[in-house]
User: Which sequence fits this backbone?
C-alpha cells in the first residue's frame, strides 16, 4: 500500500484520527449522561440487563480503551509530524512543540473545570511534554520503553483492586470505609441516595455543577499523571513508532496489515469477552470490575489498538465519500472533541435539556448517532472553505504568537 498525501497532510493519519474522535464518544457518552460509576459498571446506573447489557458488553469488548488508545497513538504520531515540519522550515522544534503543549494545557484545564470533568487534553499536554524527549529515538527503543511503561502501568493499576479487596474485608479499619465509598462511587454500585444526589446536581445550573466539578477535579491533572500517565506515554511512543515504521501512514503491504488485524482481534476479543463474562458472573463486584477494566486489560489493549489501526487503513478508500468525511473529522479533531462536550453537556446538564440520568444505556446512543452525523456533515464543507478547523486555527495562532491565515482550505483527495 502507498500513503496518500496532499501538501503536508497524511490522509491515512487524518482518517484514523477521524475514526478515533468519533469512537471516543461511544464511551464518553456514558460519562456525559450518567453518574461516574456507570462508565465502568453497568450495574451502577443505566441498565445491566437485556439490550443495555448487550450494549455494555459490545463496547467493553470492542471499543473501551481502544479508541482512547488509538487517539493517543495518533497524538504521538502527530507530535513527530509537527517536529518534522518545524525542522524542515528551520524553526526550533522544541519552541514549536512546547508552545503547542502549553496552550493545549490551557484549553484542557478550561475544558476540565468549566465544561466537563472527563477532559483528556490537559493530560495529553502534560504527557506530550515528556514524549518530546523521545523524538529522535529509534523504533526499537520506542517499543521497548513503551512496553516497560505498560508494566509500570499494570503494577500501579493493581493497587486499585487490591485496595478494594482490603476495604471489603476490613471495612472497620481507619480510612477503609471512606476508601470503599470512594471506590464504589467511581467503579462500583453507589447507594441510591448518592446517585439521587448526583443526578440532582447535574440537573441544576452551570454554577452549581462547575463549583462541584472544580472541588472534585482541581487536582485531577496531577492525579492522572500518576494513575494513567504511564500508559498514555506508552501509547504516544507506540504512535511515534507506528508513524516511523509506516503503519499509520499506509506504507505497509496489505498482507502485513491483515496480519495485525488477525493478531489484535484474534487475541483481544476472546480475552475481553472472557473478562466481561467474569464481571457479569460476579454481579459486577467491585474487585472484579476494577481488575478487569484497570489491570488485566493493560497488556492486551495495545494489540487491539494495533488491530483497529490496521483495519481502518485497510478499509479506507481515498476519494470515497465516507473516507473524505472521516478524514475531515480527523483534521478537525480538536474542534470536534470540544464541540462534542458542549453539545452533550447542553443536552444532559440542567442548564440545557436536563436529560442527565434520564436515558438508559442503550438509549443514549441515539444521541451519539446525532452527534456523529453533525460532525461528518459539517467538517468537510468547513475544510473546503478554510485551511483549519476554528479551534485548530485558534490553537495554532496562540502557539505561533500571531494570527494564522484561514484561507486555502482543500480536502485531501485520492
Assistant:
Amino acid at each position: 500500500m502507498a500513503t496518500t498525501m496532499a501538501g503536508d497532510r497524511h490522509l491515512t493519519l487524518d482518517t484514523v484520527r477521524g475514526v478515533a474522535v468519533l469512537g471516543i464518544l461511544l464511551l464518553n457518552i456514558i460519562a456525559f449522561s450518567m453518574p461516574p460509576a456507570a462508565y465502568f459498571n453497568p450495574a451502577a446506573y443505566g441498565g445491566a440487563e437485556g439490550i443495555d447489557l448487550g450494549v455494555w458488553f459490545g463496547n467493553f469488548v470492542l471499543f473501551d480503551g481502544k479508541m482512547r488508545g488509538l487517539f493517543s497513538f495518533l497524538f504521538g504520531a502527530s507530535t513527530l509530524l509537527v517536529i518534522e515540519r518545524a525542522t524542515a522550515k528551520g524553526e526550533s522544534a522544541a519552541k514549536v512543540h512546547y508552545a503547542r503543549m502549553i496552550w493545549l494545557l490551557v484549553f484542557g484545564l478550561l475544558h476540565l473545570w468549566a465544561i466537563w470533568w472527563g477532559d483528556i487534553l490537559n493530560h495529553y499536554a502534560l504527557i506530550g511534554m515528556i514524549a518530546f524527549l523521545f523524538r529522535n529515538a529509534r523504533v526499537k527503543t520506542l517499543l521497548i520503553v513503551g512496553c516497560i511503561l505498560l508494566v509500570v502501568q499494570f503494577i500501579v493499576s493493581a493497587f486499585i483492586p487490591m485496595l478494594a479487596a482490603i476495604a471489603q474485608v476490613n471495612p472497620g479499619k481507619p480510612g477503609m470505609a471512606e476508601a470503599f465509598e470512594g471506590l464504589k462511587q467511581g467503579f462500583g454500585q453507589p447507594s441510591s441516595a448518592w446517585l439521587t444526589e448526583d443526578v440532582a446536581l447535574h440537573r441544576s445550573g452551570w454554577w452549581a455543577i462547575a463549583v462541584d466539578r472544580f472541588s472534585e477535579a482541581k487536582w485531577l491533572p496531577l492525579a492522572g499523571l500518576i494513575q494513567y500517565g504511564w500508559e498514555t506515554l506508552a501509547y504516544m511512543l507506540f504512535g511515534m513508532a507506528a508513524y516511523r515504521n509506516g503503519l499509520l501512514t499506509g506504507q505497509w503491504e496489505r498482507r502485513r496489515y491483515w496480519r495485525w488485524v488477525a493478531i489484535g482481534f484474534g487475541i483481544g476479543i476472546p480475552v475481553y469477552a472472557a473478562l466481561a463474562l467474569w464481571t457479569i458472573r460476579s454481579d459486577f463486584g467491585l474487585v472484579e470490575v476494577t481488575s478487569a477494566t484497570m489491570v488485566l486489560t493493560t497488556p492486551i489493549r495495545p494489540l487491539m489498538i494495533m488491530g483497529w489501526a490496521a483495519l481502518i487503513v485497510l478499509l479506507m478508500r481515498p476519494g470515497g465519500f465516507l473516507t473524505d468525511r472521516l478524514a475531515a473529522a480527523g483534521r478537525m479533531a480538536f474542534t470536534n472533541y470540544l464541540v462534542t462536550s458542549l453539545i452533550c453537556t447542553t443536552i444532559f446538564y440542567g442548564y440545557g435539556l436536563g436529560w442527565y440520568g434520564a436515558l438508559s444505556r442503550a438509549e443514549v446512543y441515539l444521541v451519539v448517532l446525532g452527534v456523529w452525523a453533525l460532525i461528518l456533515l459539517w467538517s468537510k464543507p468547513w475544510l473546503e472553505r478554510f485551511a483549519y478547523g476554528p479551534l485548530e486555527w485558534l490553537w495554532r495562532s496562540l502557539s505561533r504568537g500571531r494570527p494564522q491565515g484561514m484561507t486555502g482550505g482543500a480536502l485531501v483527495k485520492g
Notes: The CA atoms of residues 86 and 323 lie 28 Å apart. The beta strands are 5-6, 9-10. The chain is about 70% helix and 0% strand. The mean pLDDT is 93.
